[in-house]
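User: quick one
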Amino acid sequence: MSMATEAKTKRIVKKTLISYALLTAVTVPFLIPFLWMVSTALKDSAQIMAFPPVWIPNPIMWGNFGEAVTRIPFFMFVKNTVIIVTCSMIGTLVSAPLVAYGFSRIRWPGRDYLLMLVIATMMIPFPVTLIPQFVIFARLGWVNTFYPLIIPSFVGIPFYVFLLRQFFMTIPEDISDSARIDGASELCIYSRIILPLSKPVLAVVSLFQFLTSWNDFLRPLIYLMDPKRYPLSLGLQEFRTTLSEASWMDWNLFMAACTLTVIPTIILFFLAQRHFIEGVHLTGMKE
Amino acid sequence: MIARIRGSRRRNIVVGLLFISPWLIGFILLTAIPIVASLYNSFTRYSGVGSPVWIGLENYKAMFVRDRLFRISVYNTAYYAVIAIPLQIILAIGLALVLNLKVKGVSVFRTLVYMPSIVPVFASSFIWLWLLHPYFGLVNSLLEMVGIRGPGWVVDPAWSKLSIVIMTQWGIGATAMIFLAALQDVPRSLYESAEIDGAGNWAKFINITIPSISPVIFFQLIMTTNGALQMFTQAYIMTDGGPANTTLFYALYLYRKAFLEGKMGFASAMAWLLLLVSLTLTLLLFRSSRRWVFYRGGV
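Assistant: Done. Structure below.
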């Protein structure tokens, strides 16, 4: 190798090494909390308090998971969460594309002004509508039921409506026009043509709704009184007594329960990675 | 001919409205009416049961003059916002820059950094509660190993807000990915011509990168600001407003007033004030954007 090429290769290798070093340095802080959570979950009560910190538990207490799900009614919480999440996803998939279709595939006067209204509602801070909504649902007798948590997804959540509308706008009008010439109704075009074309975006929307519902804390907090109806977001708190320095919590069991709570989202993430990244792109629109 | 295919205007209005009817109904019942009701309630005393009682500006007077906790909640929220918002944006951009390095297997790093942002907020609150435990938390243990006596974090009034700031940064992966996409959209030719003119890395960053991604920065600023002003779950779970009300954020105080103290009128006034502040901030951001946001390809 000539001197120049050798020097260049050295530069490239050095640059690559620095790149990997930077990437590792930056990624490690994001990973550590996960690792520590799992590590704690598998420790016995003594090792939690060990100093210097123990990374690999010895003995490995797999039993912690079993104890965690019996210490609190874990599976009941899961069941409640699953019901809420599934119904919300159904509600979103039923309503959001329908509304988005109306805002994109049909021309009617005033359409785009109303769309601006849809977008504007996304900017409203939640406390403004929270209290009157509560009163409305209370008058309907829906407090302590899942209805207030599910029904809003059936009326077209603005974020998804907008996302889907943007996507629908990219589908060529000719497709709709030729169907109309053939005498198809708008509903038919919607269900037979537009929806099947939208599977990737619908997947992204479902994913986001799943996460939003799984994550939901405040609304279950104000609407659900009976602990038997708590989803995981509220139920996990049952582990805590009061957080003061004096009292003690079984952190290992607590972290075991947290691990179980986090695993579904992680698994979902790995299965649907492509859709997540696509979703990120859709939301990061430079508008 | 197209017009004939696309149907008469009258028919289209009917069909269009039918399609969006779910949203329309929901908007009227769950958004429009509540907003107006909320404004009305802010001038009343209302426990949620029975009817609101008109009391004029009493709630607003109480907010600004008499209620000490209200002022504390405003201070706490402002403190948090001023620190967390720039921090999140800057860290996310920095993260995106590193994740933009073109090496093999970089997607693994991107995945790992993104993962925390899909962890439910209530779960990450618990995880960080444990990480920041004053005696047995990993953070203080690591600090002690290098000879530093770690603070009480969430239990320490001086550090409680910062603890929440730190914990929130764990989830910036999603924002970083958005910035990453923006970075990858910047045309190489811009950098190349700058290099020909002898521009160094910093000059390229300031004069090409930042302006090119400024629309995304602008959008994220709005989102992050709104998120910071409405911070609730972490404060409720990690510290419940404590210690000594140092993490009594605005939304948390509002929740307490409405649902624990039955003072829905007062809470409605707080909600409307929040709305006005949000709107003002957003408008200010929009105004300022003319100076520093550059849209490629025309206005």
